[in-house]
Write a structure and sequence with these properties.
Blueprint: H1 20-27, H2 34-38, E1 44-47, E2 62-69, E3 74-75, E4 84-89, E5 94-99, H3 105-108, E6 114-124, E7 127-131, E8 134-137, E9 147-150, H4 159-173, H5 183-189, H6 194-202, H7 207-231, H8 254-266, H9 273-286, E10 293-298, H10 304-317, E11 321-325, H11 329-342, E12 350-353, H12 359-371, E13 376-379, E14 393-399, H13 406-413, E15 414-416, E16 422-424, E17 426-431, H14 437-444, E18 448-452, E19 463-467, H15 473-484, E20 488-492, H16 510-514, H17 526-535, H18 538-541, E21 544-547, H19 553-565, E22 570-573, E23 586-591, H20 599-606, E24 617-621, H21 627-638, H22 642-653, H23 678-694, H24 697-718
Parallel strand pairs: 5-7, 10-17, 10-18, 11-13, 11-14, 12-13, 14-17, 19-24, 20-22, 20-23, 21-22, 23-24
Antiparallel strand pairs: 1-9, 2-4, 2-6, 3-4, 4-5, 6-7, 6-8, 15-16
Helix pairs in contact: 4-6, 6-7, 7-14, 7-23, 7-24, 8-10, 9-10, 10-11, 20-22, 23-24
Length: about 725
């Protein structure tokens, strides 16, 4: 490895000590490159710098002290499980250090060694001891780093491992880190250099120094996100390229007007005010001579799909094609069924293209797209392949757009008409993630926004309740009561099985909420829950099935079709059902280990029920009794507004995977907090934009640096640029 030049973009395996297995585990933490590693900011720090003496210790108190080994480490008993113990004195007193499952301690210390000790004092009778303390040879506190970083972890990776690897990486690449902060901003905010910032967060001398490093990286992160999304995720195409213009409804021919009337008549319900406003916004955009670039934000169950399909109908009636990209085959099939029902009798041909579509049918559909026979196309990533050509594509709608590669989407957003002509395609993005305004401004930049908050008429509010356990008769009795009425239920679990490393999207942050350091209540898995229903005789009377992301696409579709048809009565699932699944007969949802999910994740899950005219119930089950967990459960029971919950989630979580957006593809922040740092984000981005407007050498260098760092930090996590 010594001859290999290590760069910020190098894979982590170039570093000594990181083999394929460690790399696989680090990838679960979204660490794949050297830059990912150095930018993986500790979630908190243990401050052991308050060095005291043994005579000041009290039971249950954490203590740091310097002492001398006064007895050789020996095993206290004859069994392999017997602890290794020895005594240490600092002149003020003597205390026993006891280690379980650590036979190496026998050879690590000798009588007379000067050591530093940190741990929690306990008493065995009248006998003071510290069990499994941190202990290192050191003659003085100056020889040790007493502010110790603590990182988010996954199975098989420790904080010491990450810290050691990050510091090794930093030595190799710290002079390669491009500066993305304008000189004027650095001076005004008194920010340290980029290299210093990363050293401060991974090896701080004091808590204040760690905070100084984090603050600098927060500025960097917000600039990369806000400016990068604007300049390096542009999807509207070149300014000189004109879009296909859709005329106003007043300009429709009598035939086109009749077709539109048929579509509206198929709705079967009256659009809400928010839906009508969003549709008007879209129609006005389609009438302009520049490409539409609009975000439609809609709370769960607000009817975004109807708005999307009506927009596609509007485009199809004018003889143009439109595409709706869905993140999963299950959701694409559901959108397709909705589109077929809504567009029936209008003469609009709808096509569905999935990765699992049979080769012969794929060939037929691709011919329809190329020749213009199909004008409404719904599909997954299969629509983005090079061999898919369109006759006259005018509108692209992405459902949760960041699940699709940027370059792939751009293939659709710059459409060729079969000759040398090029048209810019209208871009509409739908998201069910309720994004607070400050976050939307940073992530989506200048994108126009329509918000749908109102729920369709006839929907009853979902009743949400909390059960302080994850196994008990009440859980099964409530479930059976709903099933007896002929209704259906979801049970959501954070894990696939007990041995699986697959976790809920938020679970990496779970111990950070409650300070449990991995000693959290046991998570209920999908397979464990299936076994429980079998043991209680529920599966015998009511058909149950499991669903999770790693299942084959054909198997997932089959399970969902059986659930939607009513054959499966209970669907036990991971959060794969969070986005878009629509079954009006599903009136019960139970979420196991609910404390392990962010508020917005819980809200998104809850939105899978309450989609018909029956009363629906969401039951949050948790064995966790901490104040933080109970506070979050109380919020869920009292609040049904996704936007309000998203704000609360930002406030509660701090830096990191804000409001459970990892599964929506929105980038994870590691240093910045968009709830508390909103003014900072605006200040930083305004300063950079001002510099770009002025031009000059600094602006040019900064633009290049931001582009480089954005690709390293965010773009590769959202699709290849």
């Amino acid at each position: 490895m010594s001859d290999v030049k290590v760069t910020l973009g190098s894979p982590v395996t170039v570093l000594y000590g990181i083999g394929p297995e460690a790399a696989r585990k680090l990838a679960k933490l979204e660490i794949t490159s050297v830059y990912d590693l150095i930018s993986f900011i500790p979630r908190r720090y243990n401050d052991w710098s308050d060095v005291s003496s043994i005579d000041q210790c009290e039971e249950g108190q954490e203590i740091s002290f310097l002492g001398t080994v006064t007895s050789a480490p020996v095993r206290k008993g004859f069994k392999k499980q017997s602890p290794v113990a020895f005594y240490v004195s600092d002149g003020s007193g003597r205390i026993e250090l006891s280690y379980f499952n650590a036979p190496y301690i026998i050879d690590k210390f000798m009588v007379g060694d000067k050591i530093f000790v940190h741990g929690t004092v306990t008493y065995y009778g009248m006998h003071a001891q510290i069990v499994n303390p941190f202990c290192e040879k050191a003659a003085s506190a100056d020889e040790l780093r007493l502010v110790r970083p603590v990182y988010h972890l996954t199975a098989g990776i420790t904080s010491n491992m990450i810290n050691k690897w990050a510091l090794t990486a930093l030595k190799l690449v710290k002079n390669q880190i491009p500066d993305v902060i304008p000189a004027s901003l650095k001076e005004r905010e008194n920010l340290c250099s980029a290299a210093e910032a990363y050293e401060y967060v991974h090896a701080p001398a004091t808590i204040a120094q760690a905070a100084e490093g984090r603050r600098r990286i927060a500025f960097e992160e917000l600039i990369l996100l806000g400016i990068g999304m604007k300049y390096f995720m542009t999807t509207g195409g070149p300014d000189e390229v004109a879009p296909v213009v859709v005329p106003s409804s007043g300009g429709l021919s009598s035939e086109a007007a009749a077709r539109w009337k048929t579509v509206v008549g198929n709705l079967g319900f009256k659009l809400t005010g928010d839906q009508r406003k969003a549709l008007t916004d879209i129609q006005q955009d389609l009438m302009l001579s520049k490409p539409m670039n609009r975000l439609v934000q809609g709370d769960v169950g607000s009817g975004k799909t109807a708005v999307a399909i009506l927009s596609m109908a509007m485009t199809a009636i004018m003889g143009k094609q439109s595409v709706l990209l869905a993140p999963t085959s299950v959701l694409a099939k559901q959108h397709y069924d909705s589109a077929c029902a809504l567009l029936a009798g209008s003469g609009i041909n709808v096509a569905l293209l999935l990765g699992k579509t049979k080769a012969s049918l794929k060939k037929e559909i691709k011919t329809q797209l190329k020749e213009g026979e199909a004008s409404v196309i719904i599909g997954t990533h299969a629509v983005l392949t090079d061999d898919v050509q369109f006759n006259d594509l005018s509108l692209v709608i992405a459902d949760e757009q960041h699940r699709f590669g940027v370059k792939q989407r751009e293939k659709l957003l710059i459409s060729r008409d079969g000759t040398d002509g090029v048209n810019a395609v209208h871009n509409l993005v739908m998201t069910a993630t309720p994004i607070p305004r400050t976050l939307a401004m940073v992530i989506y930049g200048d994108m126009a926004t329509s918000v749908i908050r109102e729920k369709p008429a006839g929907r009853k509010p979902i009743m949400t309740h909390f059960l302080p356990y994850t196994d008990g008769d009440d859980i099964y009795n409530v479930l059976i009561a709903k099933l007896r009425k002929g209704e259906q239920a979801y049970i959501v679990c954070p894990r696939i099985d007990d041995d699986s490393e697959t976790v809920a999207p938020d679970e990496y942050y779970f111990d950070d909420f409650f300070g449990l350091e991995g000693q959290a209540p046991e998570a209920v898995s999908v397979k464990t829950m299936k076994k429980r229903l079998d043991e209680h005789g529920i599966s015998e009377k009511y058909e149950t099935a499991v669903l999770y992301g790693s299942m084959k696409e054909t198997a997932k579709l089959e399970v969902m079709e059986r659930f939607l048809s009513g054959e499966v009565k209970v669907l036990i699932s991971t959060t794969v059902i969070e986005v878009g699944v629509n079954n009006p007969n599903a009136t019960m949802m139970m979420i196991m280990n609910a404390e392990r999910f962010g508020l917005s994740t819980l809200h998104q899950l809850r939105g899978r029920i309450g989609r018909g005219d029956k009363q629906s119930y969401c039951v949050l089950c948790s064995d966790n009794k901490t104040e933080r967990a109970l506070e979050r459960m109380k919020l869920m029971c009292e609040c049904s507004d996704g936007f309000e919950l998203a704000g609360k989630d930002l406030e509660l979580r701090g830096p990191g995977d804000f409001f459970g957006t990892r599964q929506h593809g929105i980038p994870t922040l590691r240093a910045a907090n968009l709830f508390t740092d909103a003014p900072l984000a605006k200040t930083a981005c305004d300063e950079v934009n001002k510099l770009f407007e002025q031009g000059g050498e600094e602006a040019k260098t900064l633009m290049n640096n931001i582009g480089t760092m954005f690709r390293l930090r965010f773009a590769d996590k959202m699709g290849t640029l």
